[in-house]
Amino acid sequence: xxxxxxxxxxxxxxxxxxxxxxxxxxxxxxxxxxxxxxxxxxxxxxxxxxxxxxxxxxxxxxxxxxxxxxxxxxxxxxxxxxxxxxxxxxxxxxxxxxxxxxxxxxxxxxxxxxxxxxxxxxxxxxxxxxxxxxxxxxxxxxxxxxxxxxxxxxxxxxxxxxxxxxxxxxxxxxxxxxxxxxxxxxxxxxxxxxxxxxxxxxxxxxxxxxxxxxxxxxxxxxxxxxxxxxxxxxxxxxxxxxxxxxxxxxxxxxxxxxxxxxxxxxxxxxxxxxxxxxxxxxxxxxxxxxxxxxxxxxxxxxxxxxxxxxxxxxxxxxxxxxxxxxxxxxxxxxxxxxxxxxxxxxxxxxxxxxxxxxxxxxxxxxxxxxxxxx
Length: 374
Description:
This protein has helices at residues 59-64, 96-109, 124-134, 165-170, 179-183, 188-193, 199-209, 227-230, 245-250, 256-260, 267-280, 283-294, 298-301, 330-338, 355-358, 360-373; strands spanning 14-22, 25-32, 41-45, 68-72, 117-121, 142-145, 176-178, 238-240, 313-318, 342-348. By secondary structure, it is an alpha/beta fold.
């Protein structure tokens, strides 16, 4: 049976424990500010390829400010168990509304009538957004990070045919493919787990390539969902057709000097990620992409077409994060249509995609200002 994370890798004041019977899961969580009861709760949701551990730099400061802070390993990740790890397994359990159910179940297990804030980064961003949209009584504020939320799908989305963008990308002079559809393939997990450079080097290059440390991250809005516009994205988003993800990021592996200088992700912290993924593989997280690209759950999500997030909301991303613009128009739609009470959009200098790890002090300040003013 999986045990909690070794306390030696966690900051002071953060503990690891397992909560049983959360929507069929034994959910691993990190907690801070647990010493006193009655504190307002802040719930932190990670993305891919991350873990609850991705919030380690944020949690102690929020606890010091008087909050009870909890970050789960979500379904498919880390030390949370009870999910189907097989490519041909229970794919619908990874659909968006069941991920929301996981979070609602966690709150119920904690005996909380509501939480003061749900915060989601990367693929945790839409989970947080859907939590706030569906249950504003439970989630009193929402912070969306790095991946803009454009709202529920329009009616009929689930019945749309294959997106012609894939043929258009493959037909470019430099043939390309979209990373989300690559992540939905059967071989993606083994490509990364069995890569030539080894798991530590793969993750090092992946995290580096999407961070502000990589000098090519100078994002700007795309004009539309066309092959020529999408081809402007770095290859971690729109890949060369004949390369897998491990080969893609290997071309951008930082030098040893750059690794030694990386204060936001030293080797001892990187090894926590590689140790967890070496045990679980990536397929749990990749199932989320399979649900998205196949439209699994879209019919039930369409029921909420036109519904907006009405609780106070905020967006945070790194100024060097192409994720803000990878879906043309989503950043704008989030502000004008999806969220009816958005207090601000903040693009943090000196950060790429891993904003809460690259610039934790700035993110902490934004979160506390928002929570105190909401």
